[in-house]
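To close the chapter, one final illustration. This time we ask the reader to focus less on the individual chains and more on the assembly as a whole: which components sit near each other, and how the overall shape emerges from the parts.
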Amino acid sequence: MFSPELKKGSVELLVLTLLEEEPRHGYQIGKLIEARSGGLLTFRVSSLYPVLARMEERGWVRGRWVEKGEQRLRFYRLTTSGERALARKRQTWRVYADVIDELTGLSHA
Amino acid sequence: MRDWTEWVKEHLPLDDFEAPAARSMVEEVASLLEEVYRTALALGRSPEAADAEARAHIEDWDQLAADLARARGSRREGTPHRAAEWADERLRRRGHPVERLADLLLDVRRAARSLRRTPVFTAAVVLLLGLGVGANAAIFSVLEAVALKPLPYPEPERVVTLWSTTVERDGRGPASFPDYLDWRRDNRSFEAMGATQGMLASVTEDGVPMQVRGARATASLFDVFEVAPAMGRRILPDEDASDARVVVLSYDLWTRLFSRDPDVLGKTLRLSGEAYVVVGVMPKDFVVTSPWDANDRVLFWTPFPSDVLTAHRDSYSFPVYARLRDGVSLQAARNDMERVALSLADAYPATNRTIRVTVSLLHAVLFAGAGGSLFIVLGAALLVLLIACGNVAGLLLARGAVRRREVALRAALGASRGRIIRELLTESGLLAVAGGAMAMVLVVVGVGALRGFLPATLPRVGDVAVDGPVLGLAMVLSLLTALVFGLAPALQAARVSHVEALKEGSASGFRGRRGLARRGFVVAQLALTLMLLHGTVLLVGSYVLLRQRDQGFNPDNVLTASVTLAASRYDSAEARLTFFRDLLARLDALPGVRQAAAVNRLPFEGGTNARVIVEGRPVPPDPNDRPLVERKTAVGNYLSVMGIPLLAGRTLEETDASGIRGVVINQRMADRLWPDEDPLGKHFAFGAPEPEWLTVVGVATNVSQWGPEWGTLNEAYRAYPLYPQRTMYLALKTDGPPARVIPDVRRTVLAVDPDLPLTRIRTGRQLVSDHLGQREFTTTLIGIFAVLALVLTMVGIYGIISYFVAQNTHDLGVRMALGAGHGRLLRYVLGKGLVLAGTGAGVGALGAYWATRVTRRLLFGISPTSLWASAGVVALILAAAILATWIPARRAARVDPARALQAE
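The assembled structure is written out below.
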């Protein structure tokens, strides 16, 4: 639906937002985005997982293996620095969205 | 269900699956895929469909590996990460080199598209770069050919000339032959030293007598130049001062007289009627010129006759050349020659007490003069380039400001800073290539135009041409300019925080760092232009003063030409006089010729001088204290032909050759020697021991002897038999255009002496322009550059003020809404321009004051710090600034407040 480039700019924000609510595991995050966007935003494992790995490396999220039946799943939760990053990203995105609106004439003056 | 871990391990290209980080990655990817699979099953898919759905989640394993490696390395940027390197290498191998090239082509195409969208901007930048760079490269190609190219000898930087000079080092001249012999014997600095003496000889070329320049030379002269003959031999040491009638030909003369005959050795060449045996031919690229004129080539060399050994120690007519020993500096050689000169002063006090030696690099002697003015022209061209760069930078900054949001958006969408800089620089690069191409075209056109307009007196003027290195230089200069001036805006655009850029409303181009940079550029342009204009005003002023200056003679309707009588045929004063009487009588009778005369030196052409003693006054024991007088000799009424007014007494008559020996002196000599007396009837003499007294019978107006820019010297015209020179100039007053009588004059000369060539045929006007030519050239070029600079600067001011008005329409609207009238608004915007102009003029005035140190020596009759010139230029700059500000200011004053406020 949307181009990968367009998603690339927003995926971190989306993931952080979901993890702010509660710790979640990787595929759950992808599914939630898909569900909440009404199927407009989908993520493949190959694009979602590197984002998680990157954020973990930066210290924004922390992952933990959890046994769930016969399955092992890795759950992520937001760290303090992840909360700060989320706040920054929200602000940027708000400005960005405003500008896009303004530039494209979508907002009501 | 498939073992997802195994499947991932199979496909994911990691170098070490046992590393903890890698194991964790594999596990997590596998667990995610398993979750996809399970979810699909739970939604009712078949196992095959679920499996396919899970597998479809990984599109590109290489890319995934690279992304993961980068993600793991993202905390420690810059530290090498094995997996990242490895994965990158795989990607590179996959993409290399076609994809890289494709990337570049993509960049270029994108840049070209973006430039095409703004044709005015693109054309302006290309034109500015082309003009600035092209002008510089064109002037540089002239400078290179004329002044920079080394002399065509091995290690030319070791070839020097030695001159006789005085203790005060005022002027320099050739050496005397005895001095040369002593210099050669006593020095410790030179590997070789040779003396020459210029000679003119007539030869017959295709049946027509021609005059050619040759030189007597010592055998050692060829050691100085270190060039072996192409054929035969050089002059031998035992031929020095031997009366051997042998001649070494230049390649040029060999071609002209012998059509490159390979059997020329042993053949006879008649020089002014005397037979010489050809013993050698020098190679084609061996060029020796007169030390006074790099265009006056020596075409043959013969040994000195034996009488040179009896030449006097105070007879200075032998230019000396030498080659420095390896490792000896010019300064060391100068010190060494000072020592030699002092020892000669001790040994021969009567002649050498005040004689010293000047050692100069031959290259500097020949080319420094012309090079100096050309360097100033190049300096002016560089100022134009800088001003053009100012405009280019201003344009790029303005474009950068306009595109700031575009860049910020792209950055927000994930384009990296490096990528954005690369794109902006690609644009600059494209502009540079286009500008460079434009410059190349301008160089070719410009050098072509310059060749038609270069003064003929410029050294090596015939060698001026467009060459590869200069074209390369144009391209490199253009690239450098565009990249340097494109980099700053690119970095600035890329550094900007996106949020900030996006948040900012309509930015004012006049405030803030960017505005400051643009204003800085305009101020710098104004300052540079003021410097250039100031120099131009001084140069044009000098030129006009020189043109208007009364040179003491009337060059209109005058034809001049030179003849040199063969010594063998005209061996007595009577024979020479008879020749000139006969010739002048025939020339007088030609239709179109009003009057004919002959003189040894024309105005501006220099002269020879000697010291005089005055009758009835004590003779100063030191000859240096006696007055110096230029020696002129004339046949016929030279003063009348040249329109030189007689102020007192009479002109020369034939009887003045004997009896009272009447002479006509110039006003200056009358004023200097007989300040409060009537000079008529007074006596003076050249040479002391047995004075042959001369009687002043007339006083003539001063004529500039050494060139239009020189002051006048004492001058005395004697009757021809008293100073019977072999080389004389014919001077004819004509009824109409002087060129019309040239064929008749030539025929008449041949009728009197069929072997006598007529050379240096010029009109009086040409004589003047020959001596003003270089100045005319320099002044015209610098003037053109100054006008160009002024126009560019006005465009610059116009640009920044227009930008200011456009960016501040809202602000101006508010002011108007608050009651500011049109006049007030106009003044407000004009004020902005004037502040810039004032600052620029202030800085420029300081620069101009500094620059007068360079231009001072080109000025004539005008002070480099002339208040009129400075005030005029500052007024001009301010007027130009007001003019350039006026249009945007009026636009600002017409702003409709309602619309301006709406615009926000």
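Chain B touches chain A at residues 25, 27-29, 31-36, 38-39, 56-60, 63-64, 67-68, 70-75, 405, 409, 412-414, 498-499, 502-503 (CB under 8 Å). Confidence is low (pLDDT under 50) at residues 75-84, 503-511 of chain B. With these observations in hand, you are ready for the problems at the end of the chapter.
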